[in-house]
Amino acid sequence: MYGFNLHLFVSDKSGGMTAPEALAKNHIVYNVKFLGVTEVDQPKGTDVIRIAVRKLKFQRHIKKSEGHKTPKVELQVSIYGVKLLDPKTRDVQHNCQLHRISFCADDKTDKRIFTFICTEPETKKHICYVFDSEKCAEEITVSIGRAFDLAYRKFLESGGKDVEMRKQIGSLQKRILELETENSKLKERLQDLEDHMADCQVPHLCSGGDSVSLNALSFLEMSSVALTPASSPDSSISAGLLTPPPSKPTQPRLPQHYGGC
């Protein structure tokens, strides 16, 4: 399974198999069979794709045994997104905006299979689309990747004035803000966990200004790194975040008094 994160795509300068001029001026059309869609729990990853493909292939096999044919669709790739149209009625069945497509892959063991993951704007669910493309899966993958590259170049050339590109960039910036807010809440939870761990340590392990156990700190550090977006100004870890507060001083025990003494 071959795939790439489309937000990090770099175009193939060797010419490839697609026509960049067609993408820049209009769109590229592919006639494919649509195996269907299924929700996945991650926005990217070859393992995620592989499970989705296996699931939809099995479902399609069941439908085929019941006499149902795999529907054909017209797949249009442009710098604005990927559209699926009914080839007869020309009705748009799915319209996936380019900035919502997070991962794209073709199967090297089955050159007919092509797939991508798109995030729904309302539900934020990650939906995997799977197609049987009759030996042009790799070409479609490259076309979508090049569409990302051309869209970004167009945005730069317009000086940020392209309305559609500004909408897409705005959506990405909004998503970054959401991640930063979520990251801030997670840091608060980590701080609470750190305080709780410090209180629960055996007294002789955290006397004075000694740190909490190294293993515990390593766990917190890994969690903080994994949950901090790269674009966030808080992406570097503060030493203060990983340093536990000093242990509470032990209160002297007062002598007990009994009645009559």
TrEMBL record:
<keyword id="KW-0581">Phagocytosis</keyword>
<comment type="similarity">
    <text>Belongs to the ced-6 family.</text>
</comment>
<feature type="coiled-coil region">
    <location>
        <begin position="169"/>
        <end position="196"/>
    </location>
</feature>
<feature type="domain" description="PID">
    <location>
        <begin position="30"/>
        <end position="158"/>
    </location>
</feature>
<feature type="region of interest" description="Disordered">
    <location>
        <begin position="231"/>
        <end position="261"/>
    </location>
</feature>
<dbReference type="InterPro" id="IPR006020">
    <property type="entry name" value="PTB/PI_dom"/>
</dbReference>
<protein>
    <recommendedName>
        <fullName>PTB domain-containing engulfment adapter protein 1</fullName>
    </recommendedName>
</protein>
<dbReference type="InterPro" id="IPR051133">
    <property type="entry name" value="Adapter_Engulfment-Domain"/>
</dbReference>
<keyword id="KW-0963">Cytoplasm</keyword>
<dbReference type="InterPro" id="IPR011993">
    <property type="entry name" value="PH-like_dom_sf"/>
</dbReference>
<dbReference type="Pfam" id="PF00640">
    <property type="entry name" value="PID"/>
</dbReference>
<keyword id="KW-0175">Coiled coil</keyword>
<dbReference type="GO" id="GO:0006909">
    <property type="term" value="P:phagocytosis"/>
</dbReference>
<dbReference type="GO" id="GO:0005737">
    <property type="term" value="C:cytoplasm"/>
</dbReference>
